[in-house]
Specification:
52% helix, globular, alpha/beta, 6 helices
């Protein structure tokens, strides 16, 4: 059985690589998708394609809407959506992705440190599982695909 997993959330740590590596080592048939994880590319895409803006509101608006094309398609096609919340930055986009996935009825796994349990209680409430490490996510995926 081949599954598609969308990896949403913070871009400043190696959590995605750890999940992908763990899945490869486990020999699981999973295809991963993700948002653009180069911060500057994501922020600059609107202006670089559609032209400069004088106001940051419109600059951000253009970029967010172009990025949303990729993100919405990937979430809609995913069997599982994993959303990582880091403690260094507020990830409003990750919270939006989690809500979007929940609204579509997607199986959602949240990933964050215990220190974020209280602020993310509503998001975790919509999740099928909440993990604290990428390795726990790998073990959940292993179980789902192999029943082991």
């Amino acid at each position: 059985m081949n599954w598609s997993v969308y990896l949403s959330g913070e871009i400043h740590t190696d959590w995605r690589e750890r999940i992908v590596q763990g899945v490869e080592e486990a020999g699981l048939a999973i295809e991963f998708t993700a948002p653009v994880t180069v911060h500057e590319a994501s922020d600059d895409v609107g202006e670089s394609i559609l032209g400069q803006e004088e106001r940051s509101f419109w600059r951000d608006h253009k970029a967010a809407r172009i990025n949303a094309i990729r993100i919405q398609k990937a979430i809609k096609e995913a069997d599982v959506v994993v959303v990582r919340f880091g403690d260094k930055y507020r990830q409003w986009n990750a919270a939006f992705d989690a809500g979007y996935a929940a609204a579509l009825g997607k199986s959602l796994i949240t990933l964050h440190d215990e220190s974020l349990t209280h602020p993310l209680k509503e998001v975790d409430g919509a999740a099928m599982a909440t993990a604290e490490t990428p390795e726990q996510v790998v073990e959940i995926l292993r179980y789902l695909l192999t029943q082991k």
